[in-house]
Amino acid sequence: LTNTNDLTADTSFAGLTFNSGEGAFTLLGNRITLGGNVANWSTNAQTISLPMILSGTRDINATNSHVTLNGSLSGTGGLAKYGPYWLTINASNSYDGVTTVYKGTLAVNHSSALGSTNGNTVIQGTAGGFLRLGSGLTIAEPLVLNGEYNNGGTLNSSSGTATNILAGPIICTAQPRFQIGSGTLIISGGVTQSDGGGLFVINASSTMIFNT
User: Fold this and answer.
1) Quick one: average pLDDT of 94-107?
2) Chain centroid, CA 65 distance in Å
3) Cα gap 90→67, rounded to integer Å
4) Which of 58, 33, 27, 62 is nearest to 45 (CA)?
5) Measured between alpha carbons, how far is residue 72 from residues 18, 29, 36, 61, 162 in Å?
6) Which of 98, 212, 118 lies closest to 165, judged by CA?
7) Total-model pTM
8) What is the pLDDT of residue 153?
């Protein structure tokens, strides 16, 4: 279940699929070029710790259990997150494409987890998309929250006793939700409402600061 890729670095793969009934894999080793999508059909969580070049926008389908990406992501492509389970990104990444969360939670634990600022991050609300920030992060990524209060398009910050900072511009459509589970969230990049909707902030025991 722990595999080390010793093929030539940057070998192109048509995709990575974890079949139904498979165990909890950890993939290590040389960097690959991801020429297709990632799908987890297993009920076990999967961990991909090898670096990957995104040659285009690649779907990550956390369909039956969670997926964790620990290796750095580079290239001109982006990510599209599907499935109800979590996709967790822990590395510093430099990919240039757009990151879109269509369903489920995208959890980030590094300030550069969402790639370069050349491509923004879009959280869709119609199917329940969520962006969850870890602790002590400064996110420069432009964010688009296409959300409704009860459906998704939600940003969740749970930083414990630390502070998270959103330094990039934020565009909100409809009525997205900012959920501050713990700690402090500072908005320093500005917030724009594209349709005149409201902005919902919940959990008043924590702190949200607009510094823009």
Assistant:
1) 96
2) 16
3) 11
4) 62
5) 20, 12, 17, 19, 25
6) 212
7) 0.94
8) 73
